[in-house]
Amino acid sequence: MKTRLSLSLSFLLILSGCHLGLSPSDKVRHKLISQFIKKMEPFDLIALGRGGREIDGKIGSIGVTFKLHKVMSLAEAREYIVLATDCLLATVNSNPDNAKDFLEFPITAQSVDISIIGEPSPEAEDVVTNVSNMNGKILYRKADLLVSPVTSEEIQRETYEEAKLQVQNTLGDIPCSNKIDT
Hints:
35% of the residues lie in helices and 27% in strands. It contains 4 helices and 6 strands; from the N terminus they run ααββαββββα.
């Protein structure tokens, strides 16, 4: 009886057009994000979520949200977001076979959505609790956890190119394989 019920349910799902699997571009995106997350582990970035946007069966954007159990200054937040963006771009763009799965290839910072959530510190002035790169624009925010509901204020905004130039001027090139010591 149990087998017949599950077979009937499966048959109904197939007839109704429900797809229990991922689309081909979703599979590629998940594979690339998994590779990228592994590259970020030495930097103590813990993946919280992943996603992206698909347009006409092709990947339009790719994104990950990370948690960092560390209080970040503005300079450190900039280094982490540039590192993560560069590593995701390198992960995708290093394989020309990925071109068929993306709307635009090679992808740029405009196709990347990355957020890094850091630790709050009520005592410190220069603290960034969230930094994100959305469509090539980086936004630095500080959350005030002492008020209810929690509020967040924008600290600074800049383009990815501006942030990358500042990091390169300070640290030089930031390859994905070297750990940032800040």
